[in-house]
Amino acid sequence: MASNHLTIFICSLLLLPLVFPSIAAHDETAPTELMKKKVDVVVEGMVYCQSCKYSGSWSWTGAKPIPSAKVSVVCKNSNKQVSFYKTYETDAYGYFYAQLDGFKMSNNVLDHPLHGCHVKLVSSPLTNCSLLSNVNYGLYGAPLRFKNKVLRGTHYEAVIYTAGPLAFRPARCTPESHV
Known about the structure:
The protein is mostly beta strands. Helices cover 15% and strands 37% of the residues. The protein has helices at residues 2-19, 21-24, 113-116, and strands at 38-49, 64-65, 70-76, 82-89, 95-99, 117-123, 131-132, 142-152, 156-163, 166-169. The longest helix is centred in the first third of the chain and has 18 residues, at 2-19. The chain is elongated, with a radius of gyration of 28 Å.
C-alpha cells in the first residue's frame, strides 16, 4: 500500500509542470549566474618611532606613531619567486591599510598570505627618526597574523591580516648619565 502512495506522489511531481506550465517557465529577466563576491586581501599595521630610552629593544614604551612612513608588502610564491610587491604609506596616525590589489595565489596553501607575505620598513619622513630597526623583524620581513578580522558586505569581503608594529629608531640618542 505504501508503495502505491509513493508511486502516485512521484508521478504527481513529474506531472506538475505539465498541469501548471507557469512553474516550469523560465524567467528571462532573472540572472543566469549568481553575482560573484569580490574578496580582497588586506594587510594592516602601525609604524612608530621608538624612544631613545628603549632603542635596541622591542619595547614600545614612549614610541610615537610616524605619519607618512613607507612600508612594503612582499609576497613570494611556493617557488620563492616574488609574486607581489608594493609600497604603502601610513596615515596621520602611523596606521597603514594595504589592499593587495593584484595579489594571486596559484597554490592555496603554499602561496597563502600567512606563509608567503611579509611587511618590511622602507622609509621614514622624520630625519630625527629614520634608522631601520628590526623590531618585529621589520628589516627582514614581519610575518603576518590572522586575528579573525573580516569586513563583509553584500558583494564584497576583505580578509585582513596584521603585521606586528614596526619601528624606526632615532639616529642620535643622548646617552643616559648615571651619576
